[in-house]
Amino acid sequence: MAEEAVLGFLQTKEISDSHEFATSIGVGHTELENVIKSLKGFEIVDAQEITRESWVLTEEGKTYMKNGSPEALFFAAIPPEGISRNNLKEKLGSEVFDIGSKAAAKNKWIAFEKDLVKRKVESVEDEVQNLLGRINSGEVAGDQAINDLKRRKLIVKQTWKGYSLKKGPKYVSKRKKAATDLTREHIVSGDWKNLEFKEYNLNAEAPPIQAGYMHSLLEVREEIQNIFLQLGFEEMPTNNFVESSFWNFDALFQPQQHPARDSHDTFFLETPGSTKDLPEDYLARVKLVHESGGYGSKGYGYDWKREEAEKNLLRTHTTAVSTRMLYALAQQDTFTPKRYYSIDRVFRNEAVDRTHLAEFHQIEGLICDRGLTLGDLIGVLEDFFSRLGMSKLRFKPAYNPYTEPSMEIFSYHDGLEKWVEVGNSGMFRPEMLLPMGLPEDVNVIAWGLSLERPTMILYGISNIRDLFGPKVDFNLIKNNPICRLGL
């Protein structure tokens, strides 16, 4: 109905106001607007959007227009002899009394004599009511009057949008419904000759494909894993999150009184609280090297306790897995050089902030071979980190209970314009390796870093909680570019 009315009217005239036209044909403007947009899309009509602004009454303004303003009602309720405040308030109600008394006093219509309210003029004209009536009828009011009504929240500005219409380049008095497909029936009957087919928009984009997206951490993890594989490393099994203190600490020559073994830094398990499945001969050698030394070491000189070594915990580093792998390697009849790596979760009892979580991912690599030196370690680190895109490296001496010498690894960050710590490294101590049964000329070089820090740098994320945990924005994961490390 609306489309026929528009096309019929445009045969002889133009439509200057779509709102007025909608009212004249008895349809809502929203319905007419949909028809206009459809006709415009096929160039049947030329539609120009027009915008107007007008003032409309609020609900309070409509009440004032109907019943009168509070100041006029206040004045009308005062008898010639005057009336007490309380009686007048009871007569009008609190809201009308409060608003009306202030406005009437401002207009100098009334006077207060102690508790009595009296008229100062004989009659008044309710200009507010009259002005609201004129605005409601579409008349134009002065700026001062508009500002007064707006301040009292009696009117609000309303933006009006409509269309002016005229014939388009493809105007027809009645359009045919365009066919979208050529069917068998059209061909058999021959009516395809008289059909108008809808044009295909070859520039239209296809609907977005709803698919899964890889998390940023997994993208970086895969790239780093590929680097290890390119360098000839094999992955260690890291599926045990729960570890005994023996493999996590004691086998690494970390003393039982070390601060890292405190409950403030480590999550200990209540159930099962301990493990009994430990290699007894190896455990005895570890106990001995802790208490009295050996292999050129004095040890720590304390009473080593088995119950401490048996305590179960959530592993604090993946080096616990490295220890197990090196011990298994030492049990072979013939020593075979190995390159191992792992990328998996570790857990530490740390306060959560923008750069720390209680669980994170550790990247670890180690090489076990004869005659390795600190120079070999530095060379491997330069090769590894250059593939991560970090070619400017510095090394700083550090201390670790299970490596000697030990080095912190720093890389120059061009964006931050400063040196940033990116990892830790060192050579495993003889007190750790020789009790396992490895040959004396076998050394192990190792390094580790977190997965989260390089990921945050690569993706420009400043808060680790936006990368990992319940606050991750899925749109961030969906829209992130594919990770590419190095050059």
From TrEMBL:
<keyword id="KW-0479">Metal-binding</keyword>
<dbReference type="GO" id="GO:0004826">
    <property type="term" value="F:phenylalanine-tRNA ligase activity"/>
</dbReference>
<dbReference type="GO" id="GO:0000049">
    <property type="term" value="F:tRNA binding"/>
</dbReference>
<dbReference type="GO" id="GO:0046872">
    <property type="term" value="F:metal ion binding"/>
</dbReference>
<dbReference type="GO" id="GO:0005524">
    <property type="term" value="F:ATP binding"/>
</dbReference>
<keyword id="KW-0648">Protein biosynthesis</keyword>
<keyword id="KW-0460">Magnesium</keyword>
<keyword id="KW-0030">Aminoacyl-tRNA synthetase</keyword>
<comment type="subunit">
    <text>Tetramer of two alpha and two beta subunits.</text>
</comment>
<dbReference type="Pfam" id="PF18553">
    <property type="entry name" value="PheRS_DBD3"/>
</dbReference>
<dbReference type="InterPro" id="IPR006195">
    <property type="entry name" value="aa-tRNA-synth_II"/>
</dbReference>
<keyword id="KW-0963">Cytoplasm</keyword>
<dbReference type="InterPro" id="IPR045864">
    <property type="entry name" value="aa-tRNA-synth_II/BPL/LPL"/>
</dbReference>
<dbReference type="GO" id="GO:0005829">
    <property type="term" value="C:cytosol"/>
</dbReference>
<keyword id="KW-0547">Nucleotide-binding</keyword>
<dbReference type="Pfam" id="PF01409">
    <property type="entry name" value="tRNA-synt_2d"/>
</dbReference>
<keyword id="KW-0436">Ligase</keyword>
<dbReference type="InterPro" id="IPR040725">
    <property type="entry name" value="PheRS_DBD3"/>
</dbReference>
<feature type="domain" description="Aminoacyl-transfer RNA synthetases class-II family profile">
    <location>
        <begin position="219"/>
        <end position="470"/>
    </location>
</feature>
<protein>
    <recommendedName>
        <fullName>phenylalanine--tRNA ligase</fullName>
        <ecNumber>6.1.1.20</ecNumber>
    </recommendedName>
</protein>
<dbReference type="GO" id="GO:0006432">
    <property type="term" value="P:phenylalanyl-tRNA aminoacylation"/>
</dbReference>
<comment type="similarity">
    <text>Belongs to the class-II aminoacyl-tRNA synthetase family. Phe-tRNA synthetase alpha subunit type 2 subfamily.</text>
</comment>
<keyword id="KW-0067">ATP-binding</keyword>
<dbReference type="InterPro" id="IPR004529">
    <property type="entry name" value="Phe-tRNA-synth_IIc_asu"/>
</dbReference>
<dbReference type="InterPro" id="IPR002319">
    <property type="entry name" value="Phenylalanyl-tRNA_Synthase"/>
</dbReference>
<dbReference type="GO" id="GO:0009328">
    <property type="term" value="C:phenylalanine-tRNA ligase complex"/>
</dbReference>
